[in-house]
Specification:
This protein has about 230 residues and is α/β, with parallel strands linked by helices. It contains eleven helices and six strands. It has a four-stranded mixed beta sheet, with helices on both faces. The protein has a two-stranded antiparallel sheet with strand order 2-3.
């Protein structure tokens, strides 16, 4: 049985960085700043990082000053550590490789976007007590880690960096086969990748073998163009 060391952190600097970066970029066809109020957007969008932080740090401190976030951190740590072996075993079984990152740091964020940094093993997780949502986010991001560690280089060589990113994001509904009992089969891809996922799902259901899935997906991607 394998496992993952999981550490949950409440870090206002990391959270503020997520707010700023999310509000000043569009990724995967998603305009993240539209997920917060216009009043908040006006304080962050188009500002320098220093200007935005002058607003963000007092604002976030008012949220962090409430004990509920500290209690949430404790609850998350206990629950997610209990599931560490599930994350490791299910994802290594899915991808047919050992878990690439044995130590993962989870940063609680109050912004509705959860990025990751593969090299450092960092994942941002939502400030929520919804256990299904937490498992969904973490399994999603660890699947990305597995993809980067074992498959991305070959995909990039065969197609290109952009299409590799499409595949990485479009494939995530596969997780419903492995984590559906913990997430309620709620994993979906971004709307911009829905057409690609429909094609990938047919490939996945042929064998439900990750290596074969990647090989066949590369063939698909060579001629595939994203529909906007």
């Amino acid at each position: 049985m394998s496992t993952i060391s999981i550490k949950v952190e409440l870090n206002i600097d990391r959270d503020a960085g997520n707010w700023y970066e999310a509000c000043n970029k569009i990724s995967h066809g998603t305009d993240w700043k539209q997920r917060i109020s216009g009043e908040l957007r006006d304080k962050i969008v188009g500002k320098t990082r220093e200007e935005a932080y002058e607003f963000l740090f007092p604002y976030l401190k008012s949220l962090y000053g409430e004990k509920k976030l500290e209690l949430m951190q404790i609850e998350m740590q206990e629950y997610l550590q209990e599931l560490s072996s599930e994350f490791a075993n299910r994802l290594s079984d899915l991808t047919k490789h050992p878990i690439a990152k044995k130590k993962i740091t989870l940063f609680i964020t109050t912004f509705p976007r959860c990025p990751f940094y593969f090299d450092k093993g960092y994942i941002w997780i939502p400030a929520t007590r919804d256990k299904k949502r937490l498992v969904k986010v973490i399994s999603h991001e660890i699947l990305h880690f597995q993809y980067f560690a074992y498959y991305a280089e070959e995909v990039i060589c065969q197609v290109d960096q952009q299409k590799s990113e499409w595949l990485r994001e479009a494939m995530t509904p596969i997780l419903n086969d492995y984590f559906g009992d913990l997430t309620g089969n709620s994993e979906r891809t971004y709307p911009i990748f829905e057409d690609l996922w429909q094609k990938l799902s047919k490939i996945w259901n042929q064998d439900k073998d990750f290596d074969k899935f990647i090989d066949k997906s590369i063939v698909l991607l060579k001629s595939y163009e994203l529909k906007h």
